[in-house]
Amino acid sequence: MIEIGIAQLLVVSTALFFIGVYGFLTRRNMVTMLMSIELILNAVNINFIAFNKYLFPHKLDGLFFTIIIITIAAAEAAVAIAIIINLYRKYKSIDVEDANSMRF
Question: Which structural domain, as residue segments, surrounds residue 25?
Fold first, then answer.
C-alpha cells in the first residue's frame, strides 16, 4: 500500500489553490469564476484534512472545519447561481466585462 505523505497533499493543495486564483483573475465568465472559488475552497479543505491527519490524528477539528466549509460553499454556490441566472435573464450575458455597462 502506498503511503501519501503530507508533502504530496500540500503540493496538490497548492496547485489547486493557484489554479483557482488564476481562473478567478483571468476569466470573464461568472460561472467560471464561481468554479474557481470552489477550487480555492477545496484546496483549503485538503489542507485542513492533511494537517489534521498528520499533526493531530486523534482530534477532529480539521474534519469539522471541512464540513463547515463544504456547507458554506454549497450555500454560496446556490446563491451565486441564482444571481447569475437572474442577471442572464435580464441582460442576456454573464460576462463580467458587460456587467460594468449594465444599468440597474
Answer: 6-97
